[in-house]
Amino acid sequence: MDLQEFLATEPTHDRDDLVDLRALDFVSSYDSHLMCPICHCPFVEPVRLQCDHVFCHKCLQSAITTFRSADSDEFPCPSCRTPTTRVSTSVPRLLVNMCDEIQVRCPLQAEGCAELLPRCHVQSHVDKYCGYRLVPCPDDSCEKKIRKRDLQSDERCLHGYFLCSRCEEDVMEKDFEEHDKELCSSLETTCVDCGTTLPQRELKKHVDACPDVVSPCAASKYGCQVKIRRADSGTHEQTCPLISLGPYFEAQNTRLNSLELTMRHLQQRNEIFEDGMSNIRNTLLESARAGRSNRRRSVTEPDRTQSQNEDDPTETPNVFSSNATTYLLSLHESLREEVSQMSHALTDLDARASMTIMNECLRIKEDMAHTNAAVNSVRMQVQWLMNPRLHNGARTGVIRTNTASTAEARSQLTSTSAPGPSSAAGPSLGPLRPRRPSDTGREGTKL
Amino acid sequence: MFANKRLGKELIKIKDHTPPGITIAKSDSLEEWQMDIKVLDDNPLYKDQTYRLKFTFNNKYPIEPPEVQFIELPASSDTPRPIPMHPHIYSNGIICLDLLSSSGWSPVQTCESVCMSIQSMLTANSRNERPPGDSEFVAYNRRRIRDIPFVYEDDNV
């Protein structure tokens, strides 16, 4: 659809009574490709531009109304600035599904709902299943709201206060269950260790301080197996050897840690140095190879080969005086290189020679064909000319004059059409002797 | 509302990770952030200096661009922040960059991408000068940044 039509459409997810999908709390991070570049949320109702960039329906609408130039139907894509006139609401199903499957927390998390669910189910969860949604009190006279799961089947109003029978506090009926189990100050419990009875909400504080709680010795991490009541721990601490050794152990541990750290540093440095060493070795090898390539060049200039070969050994020992083996190896390598260079040159020469021979042959062949053709044409003309003579020789005196005149005419005809020497030779061939009979037979088929 | 959600997400991302040379200096509210930027290469104009950018977001962000300018902290303070020398940056910190204008802005840009653009604008510069008419502009300008009719004639920087 074009921009005007697109602006006229209403995003279906934009009504007030619906869950705002952009405000949801995501359980884990989602792929940044699923994120609308404008609102930075996973796409809500994605739409696509001509350039294949995808945005949320609502985000794109607000961008279009702001960035479209007033007098044109074009709109630059926010991502790539390609001018666009059409918006497509069809995006790959895959994209929509991936956005819909992102796990979110129920938006009523603050009210106590701990539900995790895919984004596409949030709406129905909140509408139908979430027990923490506040709904109007079923009693028409009451204007308060109540959590859905507290609704009673008989649709009573639970907002009336009544007195807790134990603590004498006013408690709203809807909160009574919670009060009864956790908050009521009259609730009591006993400490497992010392047997004291105390209000439930103070239990935690008590356990931290209770003298009868059995706890492991403070040096347990150094191997002291003793578990002892908190009240008696003072006497144990005086006798336990591990506790007196404690500070020493601590110091040793920190030393060990720092040593390990320096070890690791040194190892890293060592690795770096080794890398550097191998780098240096590589560059040395390369320079040796460069020396060899100098020599390779000298193969093409035979007059300089001698001097190069004399130079090389004097250069290379300087580089490799510290490493005789490498030097020998490289020398061997360079010699081998030279040999292969030579064989290359040989094959090269070979190929070149055969090439020239071939070329010459071709030319000669061509010449021969030309000559053949010329000979042939000469032969043909000779036959043409000879033909009338032969006939004349065979016939009687009466017809002779007649034929002679036609032969004259014919020979003139051929002399005009035939090029080169044959035109000159044609008439001069006139007074020739009759040809052999075998020739006459062939002449018939040829002409 | 829209702006706050988007800024919240950006802030989480920036606090988690920023590109090299860019750090967040102040983000007390979702209306104004301050970012510290450094030029990473050896450009002698900006070597060993840190500059502070102030972002002011309005409630139409990211549909409308944020106001971005350099701010100066005195050299005597713990964190001295001068105004960088650049032919498109006035000595009061106002930046002439078409990306930050209503016409050049795109909602796809983020605080991070703007910082990176300004960082590269500094990196690419080699001229040690202020824009023409700097002293007059600084003395007389009382307009808000978005109302200044900049002319973006120079595409080279």
UniProtKB/TrEMBL annotation, chain A:
InterPro entries: Znf-RING_euk (IPR027370), Znf_RING (IPR001841), Znf_RING/FYVE/PHD (IPR013083), Znf_RING_CS (IPR017907), Znf_TRAF (IPR001293). One of its GO terms (molecular function) is zinc ion binding. Residues 436-447 have a biased composition (Basic and acidic residues). SUPFAM superfamilies: RING/U-box (SSF57850), TRAF domain-like (SSF49599). A zinc finger (TRAF-type) spans 97-152, 179-224. It holds the Pfam family zf-RING_UBOX. It comes from the Eukaryota. The keyword Transport does not apply. Keywords: Metal-binding, Zinc, Zinc-finger. The keyword Transit peptide does not apply. This is Zinc finger RING-type. It comes from Penicillium atrosanguineum. The lineage of its organism: Eukaryota, Fungi, Dikarya, Ascomycota, Pezizomycotina.
UniProtKB/TrEMBL annotation, chain B:
Residues 2-157 form the UBC core domain. It comes from the Eukaryota. Keywords: Ubl conjugation pathway. The keyword Transmembrane helix does not apply. PROSITE patterns: UBC_2 (PS50127). The keyword Metal-binding does not apply. InterPro entries: Ub_conjugating_enzyme, UBC, UBQ-conjugating_enzyme/RWD. This is Ubiquitin conjugating enzyme. It comes from Penicillium atrosanguineum. The lineage of its organism: Eukaryota, Fungi, Dikarya, Ascomycota, Pezizomycotina.
